[in-house]
Specification:
412 residues; mainly alpha; 17 helices; globular
């Protein structure tokens, strides 16, 4: 039987996406494995040599200098990915990947408070968009390509492929999911996660130790109250980010911003006499699921992270948001009679939901990390936090969607 032109086109289309998704998944997953290994190494080195934090201003200068000379468009970070998705103008520069990777490692090595999601997502977006060089992707397909890169980075760094799939679609356009991109994103997410695991890189687990209470009107009410507080905290994170960014923009010479910011951070960290609030803060997150956190833990991490990133240091917001949410939830156990680990789990994903405007991805992440038993409580917290976190989130390039319509109707 002769192969028709239509069959050839379908075969070409299938092979194009199979090769692209497989290659992106493997490359991004492997880079994320290197990133997680390196991040663990620099964290251990910093903890063994606490004096190294005094080099934070110099590290900030090196980061700013590298972006000035090699990656000026890349300084927009995640917002560049969203902008290119919404209004394609130019290929995402590949230099974004090494710049953000080594910039994040420097930030963590010298004691900045930052995360890792932004790094992984930017690596994924930069790598995936390069495939437009070798395959003929139209405008719609290129958008899927960017979604795939974001999905791969998120899935690999957190080992949550389902949540990564939804996040890669949801974060790009609030409330308007590109459902035709689900299959390639899902395939790439699992492949990236598998690729990262091939390198035997461990991921952090946060088990819920307490018995999940029965669902009742009273417990639903407690969950709603907690969700409102998580949403307000997400709003506060966005507000603090905007406030500190505005202050640093008053410094006319961009290379000085992280230097001045680094000096202030060194002074603050020295005054604390503690490394609990710098870096990722994973030990504090894990402890929040077991013991009641201090009422001030979440606000210190919130201020340090927004200040660090606004000054020009590199990294993500998500793991600090996990820290903020988990410690806030844990502290709320003094006034909300729900188990500590349940409240920590709810805050873990709900503050993230409100700050990034991705409630569906956060609900799915809650299922992947904590199982099915607490999912109703997590769902309530994520949706309520999303609604009470204000009109905008940490990604200023996000446009439109359900929340925007709701706020317009309320004239807010």
């Amino acid at each position: 039987m002769a192969i028709t032109h239509s069959n050839q086109s379908n075969l070409h289309f299938f092979l194009k996406w199979l090769i692209s998704c497989s290659a992106i998944g493997f490359i991004v997953g492997s880079i994320c494995a290197f990133f997680l290994f390196s991040l663990n190494w620099v964290t251990q080195y910093r903890e063994a040599h606490p004096w190294i934090i005094y080099g934070l201003p110099l590290a900030g200068f090196a980061i700013a200098l590298s972006y000035k000379y090699w990656g000026n468009p890349s300084s927009k970070g995640n917002n560049l990915l969203i902008e290119e998705y919404l209004h394609p103008q130019r290929r995402i520069p590949l230099i974004m990947a090494p710049l953000v990777l080594f910039g994040t490692l420097l930030t963590h090595l010298f004691g900045g408070s930052a995360g890792r999601e932004g790094t992984a997502v930017q690596i994924g977006g930069a790598v995936s968009d390069q495939f437009n060089r070798w395959f003929d992707f139209d405008k719609t397909e290129r958008r899927i390509l960017i979604s795939i890169g974001i999905t791969a980075g998120f899935a690999a760094v957190f080992s949550t492929p389902l949540a990564g799939t939804i996040f890669g679609l949801e974060v790009l356009l609030i409330g308007k999911k590109r459902y035709f991109g689900i299959l390639p994103c899902l395939f790439t997410a699992y492949f990236a996660n598998f690729s990262c695991q091939l390198w035997n890189i461990p991921h952090t687990h946060y088990p819920i130790h307490d018995v999940i209470p029965m669902l009742s009107l009273t417990n639903i009410g407690f969950s709603l109250a907690a969700g409102i507080l998580f949403g307000i905290t997400a709003w506060l994170f966005t507000f603090a980010s905007d406030f500190f960014s505005l202050q640093f923009k008053r410094i006319k010479y961009p290379l000085l911003r992280p230097v001045i910011g680094g000096i202030i951070l060194v002074l603050i960290i020295t005054l604390f006499h503690s490394s609990n609030y710098i870096g990722l803060g994973i030990p504090m997150i894990q402890n929040a699921f077991v013991d009641q956190s201090n009422y001030y833990d979440f606000i210190i991490k919130l201020l340090l992270t927004t200040f660090t990133l606004s000054a020009g240091f590199k990294g993500g917001e998500v793991t600090p948001l996990f820290f903020i949410g988990a410690t806030l939830g844990s502290a709320l156990s003094t006034v909300i009679p729900l188990p500590i680990s349940l409240l920590a789990a709810m805050g873990f994903v709900a503050v993230f939901s409100g700050a990034t405007n991705t409630p569906l991805a956060c609900i799915v992440m809650g299922y992947e990390l904590f199982g099915i038993q607490p999912i109703i409580f997590i769902t309530i917290a994520c949706i309520v936090a999303f609604l009470f976190s204000g009109k905008k989130g940490i990604y200023i390039a996000q446009k439109g969607g359900l929340k925007d319509k709701l706020y317009r109707r309320l004239n807010l």
